[in-house]
Amino acid sequence: MPLALLALAIGAFGIGTTEFVIVGLLPEVAVEFGVSIPAAGWLVTGYALGVLVGAPLLTVLGARASRKKVLMLLMGLFIAGNALSAVAPVYAVMLVGRIVASLAHGAFFGVGSVVAAGLVAPERKASAISLMFTGLTVATIVGVPGGTMIGQSAGWRVTFAIVAGLGVLGLLGVARLVPETGRPEGVTVRTEFAAFRNVQVWLAMAMTVLGFGGVFAAITYIAPMMTEVAGYSAGAVTWLLVLFGVGTFAGNLLGGRYADRALMPLLFVSLSALALVLLLFTFTAHDKVLAAITLTLTGALGFASVPPLQKWVLDQAAAAPTLASAANIGAFNLGNALAAWLGGLTIAGGLGYTSPNWVGALLTGAALLLSFLAASLDRRAKAAPATAEALPVG
């Protein structure tokens, strides 16, 4: 494994930690700043919106620089945002800090995916991408529960200071370990946007929105579902999320390994299995053991689709992949927001805390249909040149 992948994984770990750890610290933040929990929730929403905006914007702005320099600048932005959150004197300043940190999120994973894929042989691209995303999945196992416990015992400001320190480690790792390849030749803002003329790029992002949205339809409301339906105590939710994190870690590694061998078959299997598991979650949520198992499988199957989807975008936008890759990271966050909203509507409509699972299953099923369409279009595109060569001349 190239050591540069370790540097990218450290950056991903810090980003994953800061994205999710705020959820466990909202009560403490709300009390200190004297705001309501819903108002403090804007620290989550603002971050997601920042990712959506920052992914394409910063990627475009960095199109004229080398990818290593872009990654270093993004880590600097991440450090600044978390440091600002750690010392924020008022709520508004912390919100600004969260948004500043979020701007680096999508572009880091987008540019980092391209860099990771370029560090290895073509047949190992998905594996390299999955190794970088391992940092994100480890954050759900270690960083988020650990950061939550530190924040609850030593103060939430300490958590954000530690996350800023992780950003410094990531920056130093990128500076020392990621090779300097210079500015990508022939790549301009215009060529980056040209990648979006390919319908396959749009299909991949739609699959990302719907497939990953299916996961977060269930996960967003996992606390009330596990406490009110499965019967767990509130204190057990942290460790249930660790199980989810273990699933994401395993699924991500397996997805990276098998996407290099059979990308589309892996998508078919992971998306269809995820849709089935989410349907079953409606029933297994009434049993503690089965609910925990289903939660772990949801994380595994959901993240098994991440490396193949990211690699599919890189393959389809091979001439100028950076912006398309970053936009696909934004699509993950769009899926999170869409699923959370739809799941909330079903709960508000009186359908119960398990109803978001049905929403997730429908979203994932739609992603599966799009994967069939993408595979069909790909087969036709590959068959067209062969057919043209077979036609008689004259």
Largest sheet data: none
Supply the number of helical segments. Answer: 16
Number of strands: 0
CATH superfamily of the largest domain: MFS general substrate transporter like domains
User: Which regions are unreliable across 5 or more consecutive residues at pLDDT < 50?
Assistant: none
Based on CA inertia axes, which overall geometry fits?
globular
Order of helices and strands: HHHHHHHHHHHHHHHH
Distance from first to last alpha carbon: 53 Å
Strand content: under 5%
Report the oligomer. single chain
Total number of distinct structural domains: 2
Rg (CA only): 21 Å
Q: What is the CATH third-level topology name of the largest domain?
A: Growth Hormone, Chain: A
SSE class: mainly alpha
**CATH architecture tag of the largest domain:** Up-down Bundle
Mean pLDDT level: 83
Description:
The model has no long low-confidence stretch (mean pLDDT 83). Helix 9 (199-219) packs parallel to helix 12 (263-284). The chain is mostly helical. The protein is globular. It has 16 helices and no strands. 84% of the residues lie in helices and 0% in strands. It folds into two domains: 1-185, MFS general substrate transporter like domains (Growth Hormone, Chain: A, Up-down Bundle), CATH 1.20.1250; 186-382, MFS general substrate transporter like domains (Growth Hormone, Chain: A). It is found in: Cell membrane. This is DHA1 family inner membrane transport protein. It holds the Pfam family MFS_1.
